[in-house]
């Protein structure tokens, strides 16, 4: 698998190509979360249109949601746009979105068939002044 991460003024685009394993997806994801620019992004586009196949099951979707729940404490203002036409991926993204919703994640997650539609949604959402929900309170460590 090959992936590209493109940092833009207010966000990031992650594009994946070829056959993708869960480990490779996690590496690409971590390269964004661990970058100091992550703290300031307002959108994250994940484009998988050029992906041939991938290995992501329900357990992996739950793990990804867990990572992003943690990341939402760092940056609660992310609009996450998945770009795919693969029905299996869409089902996993829907499950991912359910996990985030279940814990009241402040992130908004949507699915689009192309980047132009994703960017229109981001622009329209930002123009309406929509803010991400308030991040859940952090538990005190004792």
Explain what you see.
The chain is of the alpha/beta class and 142 residues long. The protein has one domain (2-127): 2-Layer Sandwich (Transcription Regulator spoIIAA). Helix content is 41%, strand content 27%. Strands 1-2-3-4-5 form a five-stranded mixed sheet, sandwiched between helices. Strand 1 and strand 2 form a beta hairpin. Helix 2 packs across helix 3. The longest helix is centred in the middle third of the chain and has 17 residues, at 58-74. The radius of gyration is 14 Å and the shape is globular. The chain starts with a strand and ends in a 15-residue tail after the last helix.
Can you identify the CATH superfamily?
STAS domain
Distance between the termini: 42 Å
Content of β-strand: 25-35%
With helices defined by DSSP (H or I, 4 residues minimum), what is the helix count? 4
Structural class: alpha/beta
CATH topology: Transcription Regulator spoIIAA
DSSP summary, beta strand count: 5
Domains (count): 1
Q: State the strand order across the main sheet.
A: 1-2-3-4-5
CATH 2nd-level architecture = 2-Layer Sandwich
In one word, what is the shape? globular
Main beta sheet strand tally, sense and closure: 5 strands, mixed
The top level CATH class name? Alpha Beta
Helix content: 40-55%
pLDDT average, as an integer?
Answer: 86
């Amino acid at each position: 698998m090959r992936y590209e991460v493109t940092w833009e003024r207010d966000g990031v685009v992650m594009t994946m190509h070829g056959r993708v394993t869960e480990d490779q997806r996690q590496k690409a994801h971590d390269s964004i979360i661990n970058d100091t620019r992550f703290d300031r992004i307002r959108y994250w586009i994940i484009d998988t249109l050029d992906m041939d196949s991938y290995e992501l099951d329900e357990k992996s979707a739950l793990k990804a949601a867990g990572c992003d729940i943690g990341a939402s404490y760092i940056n609660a203002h992310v609009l996450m746009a998945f770009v795919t036409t693969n029905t299996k991926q869409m089902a996993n993204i829907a499950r991912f979105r359910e996990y985030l919703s279940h814990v009241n994640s402040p992130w908004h997650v949507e699915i689009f068939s192309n980047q132009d539609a994703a960017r229109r949604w981001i622009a329209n959402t930002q123009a309406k002044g929509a803010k991400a929900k308030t991040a859940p309170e952090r538990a005190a460590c004792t």
